[in-house]
Design goal:
Layout (H helix, E strand, L loop, with lengths): L1 H18 L14 E3 L6 E6 L4 E8 L7 E3 L3 E3 L6 E6 L7 E8 L2 E2 L4 E4 L9 E7 L17 H7 L4 E4 L23 H11 L6 H5 L3 E4 L3 H4 L8 E6 L11 E6 L4 H12 L14 E5 L2 E5 L13 E3 L6 E3 L20 H11 L4 E6 L7 H10 L17 H7 L7 H13 L5 E5 L5 E4 L8 E4 L9 H7 L20 E8 L3 E8 L4 E8 L1 E2 L2 E2 H4 L6 E2 L10 E8 L3 E8 L5 E10 L2 E8 L6 E11 L4 E10 L2
Parallel strand pairs: 10-11, 11-12, 16-19, 19-20, 20-22
Antiparallel strand pairs: 1-2, 2-6, 3-4, 3-5, 3-7, 7-8, 7-9, 10-23, 13-14, 15-16, 17-18, 21-22, 23-24, 24-25, 26-27, 28-29, 29-32, 30-31, 30-33, 33-34
Helix pairs in contact: 3-6, 7-10, 8-9
Length: 626
Amino acid sequence: MRNTAARGVQVVAWLVLLLGNGQAGGQGLTHGVVVGGVTESSARFWLRSGIEAQLEVEISSDSSFSASFLSTSVRASAEAMFAGLVEVSGLAPQTRYYYRAVIDGIRHNRVGSFSTFPEPRTPVTFTFAFGSCQQSGSLLPSGTEPGNVFREVVAAGPLFFLQIGDWGYPDTTDSLPTDSAFFAADFARVQASYRTKFDPDYLMDSLFQIAAVAYVYDDHDFMNDNASALTSAYALAYRPNPYGDDFVIREVMNPPGAREHSIRAYRENMPSYPLVNESRGIYQKFSCGSADFFLLDLRSQRSSNLEPFEKNPQTQLWEFTPGPEHSILGRDNAPGGGESQFSWLLRELRTSTATWKFLVSSVPFNQGFRTAIDAGVFFQDFPINDPLVPPGASLLAVSLELADKWVGFPSDADSLLSLLSAEGIQGVIVLSGDSHTAAIDDGTNAGLPEIMAGGLDITNSRIVKLLDDFAIKIWNKGGQGLTTDEFNNAFGKITVFGEDSVRLSLVDEFGTEFATHTVVRTVTGLDVADALTPTGYALRQNFPNPFNPSTVIEFVLPVRARVRLTLYSLLGQEVAVLLDDVRNAGTHRFELKRTDLASGTYFYRLDAIEESGGRFAKTRALTLVR
């Protein structure tokens, strides 16, 4: 009787293999093969059979598979939800390869392809794409087709795609603070989230067929909204509220083992590059031509977001006072053992010989956000009164949300920028997401050139426009609400022109490029254009920012002029005249070091009067942290 039952199960299994399951085209493959971890000579593949079976991938440099070979093999088991990762090596650089799944020796009828990378430090031109925030379900814009943007991603023909977080939103069943049954507490639910990511009925599947994918999680696919390594943030920035007459600012403990579940499921289901230190998280590095890519884990190592918010007992007001160990990267006191991610990143940047160094950041880096944090804290009892935010919200809500970004962790951002400046490390560019919107800054405000693409199919944020309306203009090369009034789904398209330059572009789901900026290889720390006679005025963002105890303000004059550099308080009161002198055409630097100023945000203004009577004026914000 047992033998008959077993034989019946085997017959059903083979019928599934031969006839297919109706999801991915046949022969027992429930999802299309996903390729990742690609280098100039190797690749990794994820595939799922839906039954217990031996999984392999057949590889060939021609689509007819006239000469082919097999990957490593793995047994799909119920424990792994019948999915597995296989690998192949010995590939040729810059070569198009075709592949198909092999399940228990039977070849699948769906063929995909990918290209291997150029060898490291080879100055070739290549294009890749990136983005974040997709497949949320409830957060899809009205009338928007899920994943429609991937039609344009595929049309761009990227060498690879970087998915940098909030992929699938498996945390949407949780409800803080009363329901903390986070999805990551159940390892099976974390495993299942990868089946959602690789859903063959979602349009991203067409991208899987032509390009490699690399991925790092963010809060919603790691644990919960604004999650850290050990806690998840919960805040109510309006009063009264269900908990009383004060703002609610607290952290909810993540369930035991949940962090480890997210890391383990990533390792077992994502065809990633080798993890540097799994006990510390999923951060990793890869090289492609003239570029190095640093994929950061900004969740499983970070300090609790709301930890720096404390109520002053004298004023009864909330203050934002992050300490030196408040870290987004994770320092020695973060979970895990061995070298910290913070030390690893600084060491790798210091030793990298790549012309371009891309920081793949799941949250925005832009240091200009600090002005908004300080303004929100300073005016914490003022309502926002903007149709883009919930009614009754205080300006403190802006501070609490932005504390989730890099500016909420000034010690890490300062250390990073200081290292780059002190050691003359050039060519660093930030790719970021999380924001449900898109914009570009050339580094004047962000601290580094940054392109933010946070709305693959979730575009319910207007944060860039909101801040711009409040005169916090920190994305100077355009974006949604700046150079376009459309808030369509969008992605970032990056073209690396060897060692010469990098073109950053934002493209929407209809193929419209609505913002672009080209980063040119630098000479002695200045853009090539700036190394020549300057053709226009400029007042650059101070560096570092925030700062303590000193910072440098740089400005450019196209002609000889009398310049006056003035420092103002947040309320517009003159604090000091820093410079009042005649300067020749060129780039000038002024070091600001004041021991008599209190922590907070200030404005600095440059007024220039030419001998011919022409005038120029520009104001920027800076932040002092004691």
